Every structure is written in structure tokens, then in C-alpha cells.
Amino acid sequence: MACGIQRIARVLLACAIVSFTVLSFVKNQHAILINVNALSSSFNPAINSSATDIANGEETTHVLIARTASASEIDNVLEDILVINSYRENGAKLLNQSTAYCDTLHASVDPAPFVNESHLFPNQLLCFGPTNKNATTQENNYEMVQADFLIFAWDAGVIGKINNTVSDHSLDNVQIMDVTGNSVKVWNWLFHLSETTVYGYDYVWMVDGDIIMKSLHWHAFWQIIKLTKPKVAAPVITGLGGGI
Asked: What is the mean pLDDT of residues 107-127?
């Protein structure tokens, strides 16, 4: 009897340690990308939340970007939304601009990508891959990765700014979650990103409101994600001065 109680106690302690470790990791992350399909199939093979469809012979990937937004962050969040929404109609132009930097990358010249146009500076995969510098033969992730947004708004002022932007630009891919009085991001992620909420998405990306997403090279980032297919990823955040 005593041995049985000790085993149960050890199991409960182990669960508590794992839970604390996971919550601590999540709490200290500024951007976490989760592969919904991979995790769904791992925990429940009956769940198929993929919304991947076919357009022009290519697969469209659907991502839900869930962001916290305080009064000091909302302008940045809204600007990111407008920039990311513009990718689909400007995808060909952006990809060509990106591959124009490949010669600079080949020459090993430091172009200071964190100072200017980091969103256009290519990675090694884009320039040295099988489609080397040929933008016309690359799957264009500016067009083929479609984002929706779920904003955890900290107060009425933030909600008002979101509503004004949605109305002014006729946006149909922005949802607002009023979390007034409960601004702890990790609890909002855990409580509101339910199976119902994430159903229909290939990825869920939880991002703090002070992260400048428009500085991300959207095409190159999704190249890496599609190639490596991680279940969970925490992209490195780079400071404006190039520091981590």
C-alpha cells in the first residue's frame, strides 16, 4: 500500500514538474509556431484540422496568427496585419525583389540586413536551392501562405482601433478577443486557442504584440517551415541593432 502511494506521488510530482517546465517555456517565448496537423495526429488521429487546399496546382497553407495587443503595441500589430495582407497581391514582385539580393549573398558581402529591407533579404535556401535565383519557378509563399488574425485586445481603446482598421480597409480575416482584466498571454493562449478555434488551420502562430512581423522574410521563413515540418518552432527574435 505504501509503495503504491509513493509511486502515485512520484507520478504526480513528475507531471507537476513537466507542466511547470512547459508553462515556463511558453511564458518566456515571444513567438511560437505550432503545427496543428502534426500535433492533432499525435494526440488524436481522428482529428484532421487541415485547411490546405489546391490553387494553381500548389497547396495553400493556412495559418492563424494569435497576438496580444496592449495600447502601446496595437499600432505595430495593425501595421503588421496590413503588410501581411498585402502579400498575396504583391507576391510576384516581392519574390523577384528578394532574389535580386542573391548576388550579394553569393559574394559574401554583408548587406546589413537588420538595418534595411530585412523583409526582402533572402536566405541560403532561396538563393542556393534547386531553383537558384529563378523566382518564376519557386512556389511563392507570399501568395500560398494565407494568414488570419486573432487579436487578444487588452482594453476598449485597443478594440476601438482594431475595429476602425477593419472597417477602413474592409478586412475579413481579423477576429477580436476582449481580454480586458486578463492580459496574461499564456492563459489567453491556453484558454482561447481551443480545438474549435484552431480547426481549419495548418499552423497556429502565437506572437507578442511588440514583435515586428513585417521585418520577417515571409517567403523564406515558410520555405524553412515547409521543408523541416516542425511540430513546434520558436523563431529567433533579432533586435533592431542586430543583437539577440
From this structure: 62
